[in-house]
């Protein structure tokens, strides 16, 4: 789109991005759980099987009034309407999408709120370039704001606000998205426009996106200061805190199914593995980790989850399988007591 389609940011426009908000369709925290892992059989997860997490309520947006503002430490602040955004160079990214889980409880329970979808939109780096951004020591974070507001865990917020390190914002996979799996984003998915940050937990992909701002420091809202920070598991003293950004290596078994009766001693194991860093090795154990059978994950497509398959020999009787993944950077799934601990499936083997 020609440069003259971009509007300069005027004083009167500085707050009117919120004029597109009509109401919350329903208020308060809402969640739709995904199906159990063994039902996640397709490479692309349909909308009906993808989890939904809404903190304060889903925003109903007046499309004719919708604008996206980009400001902060950029020399040419921008305002874009939805049609103008959709005329910019389009990119599609296939990526896993994972919910971190509740920020109110310790991250020790595995939830497997996971799916794999295709997002379509404009690279955030392209918008930063149009706003004249150039690397500098002062610009360290990109803030994002949504049109939703309300109460979560007894904390009032006038907007959902998150931040990203500038380095992640500039990566080609980070999108300002307006479609998922080839369809316009619904209200429940954060439409008309949301941020998408492949490799980072879903909490960072701000829904009902209305403002992007380049800043020196982390965003001051409760979703960065009070919620979604955790003790770094690599800190031996257990004191250092870190933001909930990068997704740790994880995997699920999809075959055999829980309580399935498998005929014959050769048992086929299938599943998905994922993480911010691509997965290289999958290990499967039937004896609580005393011995392991190893296989390789299929090559990652963009930021997608990766399929794995293996065949193992098992004696007749009740069995329990567990799988753990290791990333190409050497990060390995823990066996217990973490939100990404190894997935276990109980089933039975009978003679053929």
TrEMBL record:
Pfam family, one: Mo-co_dimer
Segments forming domain Oxidoreductase molybdopterin-binding: 58-222
Entry's Gene Ontology cellular component terms: mitochondrion
Cofactor: Mo-molybdopterin
Domain of life of the native organism: Eukaryota
Gene3D superfamilies: 2.60.40.650, Oxidoreductase, molybdopterin-binding domain (3.90.420.10)
UniProt KW keywords: Metal-binding, Molybdenum, Oxidoreductase
Keyword Metal-binding attached: yes
Family annotation (InterPro entries): Ig_E-set, MoCF_OxRdtse_dimer, Mopterin_OxRdtase_euk, OxRdtase_Mopterin-bd_dom, OxRdtase_Mopterin-bd_sf
Domain Moybdenum cofactor oxidoreductase dimerisation: 244-340
UniProt GO molecular function: heme binding; molybdenum ion binding; molybdopterin cofactor binding; sulfite oxidase activity
A single BP term in Gene Ontology: sulfur compound metabolic process
SUPFAM superfamilies: E set domains, Oxidoreductase molybdopterin-binding domain
Protein name, entry field: Oxidoreductase, molybdopterin-binding domain-containing protein
Record organism: Clohesyomyces aquaticus
